[in-house]
Structure formats: C-alpha cells, structure tokens
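Dear support,

We are seeing what looks like truncated structure output for some complexes. This example has two components. We would appreciate it if you could run it in full and send us the complete token output so we can diff it against ours.
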Amino acid sequence: MTKLLEMRGISKAFPGVQALSNVSIDLNKGEVLALIGENGAGKSTLMKILTGIYKADQGEISLNGEKVEIPDTKRAAELGISMIHQELNLMKDLTIAENIFIGREPKGLMNLFIKDHELNQMTRDLFNQLSLDLDPKTKIEQLTIAKQQMVEIAKALSYESKILIMDEPTTALTEPEIDVLFEIIENLKKSGVGIIYISHRMDELKRISDRIAIMRDGEYVDTLKTSETDIKQVIHLMVGREVYVESKPNIQRDDREVVLEMKNVSTNTNVKGVSFALRKGEILGFAGLMGAGRTEVANAIFGIDKIKSGEIYLHGKKVKISNPTQAVQKGIGFLTEDRKHLGLLLDMDVKTNVTLASVQNFQRAGFVQEDKIAKTAEHFVEKLKIKTPSIHQQIRFLSGGNQQKVVISKWLLRDCDILIFDEPTRGIDVGAKGEIYRLLEDLASQGKSIIMISSELPEILRMSHRIAVMSEGRMTGILNALDASQEKIMELATAYRE
Amino acid sequence: MKADSIQGQLEAPKLKKTTGGKLQQFLAIGSLVVLVIFFSIASPNFMQWSNIIGILLSTAVIGILALGATFVIITGGIDLSVGTVMTLSSVMTGIIIVNANLPLIFGIIGGILTGALCGMLCGFAITKLGIPPFVATLAMMMIAKGLALVISDAAPIYFTDHEMFSKIALGTIIPGIDIPNAVLIFFILGIIAAVILSKTILGRFNFAIGSNEEATKLSGISVDRWKIAIYGLAGVFTGIAGVLMASRLNSAQPALGQGYELEAIAAVVIGGTSLSGGKGTIIGTIIGALIMSVLTNGLRVLSIPQEWQTVVVGVVIIFAVYMDILRRRKK
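Here is the complete output from our reference environment:
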C-alpha cells in the first residue's frame, strides 16, 4: 500500500543549530499520527517544512508515492496540506464566514462585490458537515478561544485537505469541546484524511492516535503503535538522553527561613489555586509544558496580573502587590523571557543598561553622575565576567549570555533578594549557559532566593533545590531535587486533573 | 463542573464586547444631536436654513477627505498628505482648464487622477519600500505642497472665464431645493464609500489587513497590492475634494490645504474608527465630520472667538480618542 505522505531524510540547519537531521516519518490515509518530543525537538520545524514555510536542506517529500516540491504555503494548500497553528491566525474584526473563505469569496457583479448571503450559506453548510453550531455572522472577537479554534479547524477543512496538521489543538479547549474535536477527527479519519497531531498530553495521544512518532533533539527516534505501548515507554524515548547531573545541589534548604509564600492564588490568567513557599538561598525550579501557567505565576507575584483570590506573603507578612513598581520596592526582580524587548535597551550601552533601573542613586541635583555610573558598571562587568570591549558598548553587540548578565546586574543593583528568572538560558549558547548556571548558584549561596522557570528539564534538574511542576494552571507537585527525574516531572506536567 | 466554570469564564466577556463596538457610534450620533439641540436653543440663528446649508457646505470638502482617510485608517495606516494633495489636485484642475484651456471634464478628471496617483505612490512607498505610513505620507505632503507651488508659479489660478466651473460645487441640480451640489456630492460619495467598504472585496480585505495583516497574508491575499489600491482609492476622494474646493472658491489656491488632513483625521476618529485599524464605519465618519462643522459653526453663531473654537475642537478630539482607548481597554 502506498503511503499518503512520506517524508524521507529531512535535514534542516539554522545558523548555529542543526534543527533537523535525517528525519523520516510517514502517514497513512485515515490515520492519526501523533508527533511528540520536548520543546525544541524539531516538531515545528518539520511541520513548517511540510507546509512550505521553510525549505529543507536535504530529504524528500512524497504524496501517494509521488515526489513533490513544496516551495511555499500556497503550494502546500494546493496539495491539500493544511495546518492549524497554535497561535491562531484569524482576523478578529471579521466574521466567522469572512474569515473562513477569505480570498475565496463568492463574487458577483464584475467580480467586485461579495455575495454575503452565499458566503454565509457556504459556511453554514460547512458547519453542518462538522456538526458545529455557530452563527457565520458572528465576529471572531466575540468568540471564546475554544470557538476560535473550531473556526480555524473549519477553515482548514474547507480547503478539502487530505493532510491536516494540528499543533496542540486542545490547549485552549474544555473537556466537552475536546470531545467535539475528537468526534470531528474520527469523522475525518473515516473520510480518509490523514492527521498529524502534535500534543504533549499523553492521555490524549492514547485516546486519539493510531501511531506515535517520537523526536528528540532534531532527530527521529522511533514510531510506535499506540495500542502496543504505554505512556512510560513514550516518555522515556522522548526524554532519552542521560540526565545531566554534573553539579546537582546536594544541600537542602528546608531549614531556611521562608521568604516568599503563595497561598491558594488564582488569577484570571491561567493560575488556579497555586500554593508554594520559597526559602532563603533556594533555587526553586518551575517545570511544566508551554501554557502550564508558570509565567502567569511570576506575573502574579510581580503585580502584572491581578490576583483574584488567595494570598502572597513576604517574609511572613501578607502583602498586596498591585504593580511592578511595588514589587521592585519589596525586593523582587523579574528577568523576563523576552529580555530583548522587555529587559534591555538594545541601542544603549552597557553602563546605561546596568544602572537604568536605579538611576535615582546616580544623580546629584538632577544631574546624572557619569563617573559613578561608570564605576558601578565596571564593578559588575568584572564581578559577573561580562564579556564586552568596554562599558560603552551597545548591548545589541553582546552575545545572548552576556546580555543576560547585564539584566542580572541591573536587578542586583536594585538590591533584589528574590529573583524570578523566566527561561534564563533561552537563546544562549551552550558555553554561556554554564556561566549563567554558575552565576545563579553563586547568587543562591549568597542568600538570594531564586525562582527559575525553565522548559529544559536537564537545566531544571541540574539547578533546582526543589522542583515545582505545573499543568493547566495548577501545581501538580513539588519534588525534591534528590528524588526528581525527567520521567517524574513529565508525568506531573502532563497530569490531567479532573 | 470544572468545564462549566471555565466555559463561563471564557464566555463572560462576550456581553461587554458586543455592546462595546457600537457604543462609540451611538455616542457620536448622540453628541451630534445634543450639539444641534444646544445651539438651536442658545441661538435662534442656528436653525436658519441658510446656516444649515452653510454647515453642510463647510462639511463637504473635509467630509470627502475624511471618507478617503477612513479606508486608510482602517488598514491601520494614516495619510498625512491629503491636505496638500487636495491642493495639488485643485491646481492641476486649474492648469488644465485655465492655462491649457481644455474642456472642464478634462480638468476634473485630471484633478482626480492627480489625487489617485499620489495615493498610489504613498501605497507603493509603504508596501514595496517598507516606509512607515506616517513618514511616507508626511513626505508626500511636502512633495505635493511644493509641486502645487511650482506648477502654479505660486499664484492662484482663477476660473473667472469658466462660469460653469463654479456650478460644480455651488450650483443646485435639484430644482426648487436650495442644496448646493457639493453637499449632494458629499452624501452620494458617502453612500458609495459605505458600499465599497461593506460590500466589495476591497472593503473586506481592508478590514482584514487592519485586523491582522499577517493572517491576511497567510490566507494567500496579496496584501501589498490591496494596500496600494486602498491608498489610491483614498487619493480619488482627495482628488474629488480638490476639484470641489477649486470650484467653491472659483480659484485654485496653491497655498491652501495644509492642515485639512488633520481635520479629516479628526473627523474619522470622532466617528469611531480605530487608529489601530480593523474597525470603522463610513456613517461614523460622516457624523464625525458633521460634529466638527456644527461645533465650529455653532460657536461662531454664539460669537465665540475663532481662537476658542479651535480650542474646543481640540478638546473634542481628546474626548473622542479617549473613548476609543476605553473601548479597546475593555477587551
């Protein structure tokens, strides 16, 4: 039997990274193939090659046994390949019908006017096929995220796709909505559509997939029949590599004073009844999948997101932090994931960036004391070993690791004793990572308390004294570093709680 | 249980949103009505027929500019060049009719094409050269201003020998009813603009681009081409405004026009079109333009000095844009 889709020996390199090396997968008609792997395993890159967004360096793609070239997204659509992206691609000010058939509107009178009536009817017909109950004339912005996702799916199906790629389609859906989605998927299977289903939720894979293809570090690992495998085996293959335990902190901090405590905190932004305590000199790792609510917890502590219920205690005293200024005054520093946009002024130099947040301390009668600023900046450059030709260098020209160090100095200068790092080593090369790790360890041993949000399990395991794991906005468990393992963390991170 | 409560959370903002969009439209109409009632009570002269016609006539030119600007602003862009491009169109019409002594229709078409060409050039600079709309149209504003002075030798062109020309704006085509053509043209163009915006492909893509340009591109639509078309269409409106302006003044005044773009943008914004794109209506723009002229006229009828009139309009703009911000903040 010829396969609906075969991707053979696909390789793709980006400057500095081999994103895919020699990956092969295949897909049958009427089958759901789950594609799984950790963040950065290369799933998205592979799918972007299939949909014509990227071009592979090597390898070939065949549809029904025939070799095809997919140079752009248009060609992919013509071949019947559609993808439902995780970030929804809808025009929120337009109606459902207008979105689904954009660029393909039924036209009348000199091909200028749109037959809206017909357009809405086409949409209604489509929805009937999918048993969706939505009014085509509703504007997208009035829909819940879940319903927007349904619209995306309907849009993809309206192209009469033969291959449908779904990237974490259930992230925003509730249980009944997932049931509807799975029903749609079952119907699609019956009509011969092949589906590549990307998900992190093991329970879902069991329910919906026929086979599971596993990727790790840009390489293909194995494909298993879902019915003949169990979740443990899949996770093991997915995590694969030996756990990196070079300098796992062996000192526990349980006896230390609690500096920050969250009690049953909920927000409107995916934090649901989260409780934990952070001790002095401790690195508390936050593990979980994308969308688990980790950054939102940090936002709640830092006063960015409003707390709906629950309490925050600092040094045993109940506090209310309603904006970042108050958080900083209370000694909390937040090193955001997107440091280029939120943490640094790229066009300004090292000394300005280091001292920016505390410039009040470097002025006399309103005049900036350049010499004092320079001295302080020199001090941090030396202390944190920031590699820069001088303190007058623009931040833009520093490497990712050194940029991160500048952000860290900025917060140290403000006397923050609680530091929240969101993905501290994202976009930083391997060598510099080690330096950032050492720096975090130094900070902790000097008595700073650190929350480290990271999606890289080896990093979490290596750095943390304890590991808090989140799933779907909830804290699913807090593990002691000594008895934590990648498998245990993944199990908690994918725990689906009723 | 859990699913229900999440569903509830997701659904909750829905009610607010549906009313949010219409709120400012409603506010705009409401403000217009309140203003009219206020001025009628404050001054018996306000509701005089001749005064009403005066208001409508002064709305026409700015209003037509604002109609074009509405399309551009819905894409999320801005057009600062409409004031001086309007002048350039006036001057072009004058040169064709007076200096070259060609039939009126050539002058009219020439003026409109001038506007369209300038608009398309802005669109080209924005899409193909990647220059931000603010900068591209600011440059066009200066280019058009300079060109208008160059080709007219910096002197007004009078249409005194072409009596018919002034009839375009000031004649009355409907017998017995004393409504100047300029006002009729404004309302007819309003209807045309509304139809284009809500019924045609161009209108649809206009909203799509303003709403999410990336997603529009990914849907296989050549965003660049449509943007150039939209700036060109706005230019057509600008050109028409230029011809009407010349007709009304019975002369092409090369030094006039700068500042009109800001009044046009103000009318669009007061009418509820969002400067961040994706939202807006033609009826809103027409009401916005009317609010501006009713305000200035009413204040003049009440003998409030010109300087203060400008202050009041400024305050109204702040109020209107603040409404826009409030509306967006709700989301």
